[in-house]
Amino acid sequence: MPLLSLPLLLLGRTRQGEQSTPPVRSWCTVLMPPLETCGGLAMALRQQQLRPVHLRAEQSDRGDWLAGLNNAAELALVTPLWHHQLQACSSAPLSVQPLPVPLTLDLWLLVHRRDWCKQPELEERADAWAALVNRCIGGA
Fold first, then answer.
1. Element (H, E) at 123
2. Does residue 139 sit in helix, strand or coil?
3. What is the tens place of the pLDDT at every residue in 63-95?
4. Which domain holds residue 16?
5. Domain count, the chain
């Protein structure tokens, strides 16, 4: 059952004296979550001639992302909410730009068909959970 679909953006540091990040160039490095969590997105970035750089599994907070953006990557692949959270704790200005070919992050609830049929309340709970997820991370 689909729960949420979020647009993905490229976030980069704005250089001093410039209004926005430089345009996306072929094979620039893009910071992403650990490979285990987003292999499909990494492949989609490579198809757009971008080079994914993954955080390690234990790196997940804003500080890790900002450090990676400062040291390991030119851009970061983010949702709109993550962009706002990173901007709020960054000492340097950050700006967003669209991907050359738009991508979305799709969140799904997977339930075995047998369990879905036996427990009709799962659909009601899934709808409530989807609404909660949308309120928490779908905005901004």
1. helix 121-133
2. coil
3. 999 999 888 888 999 998 899 999 999 888 888
4. 2-138
5. 1
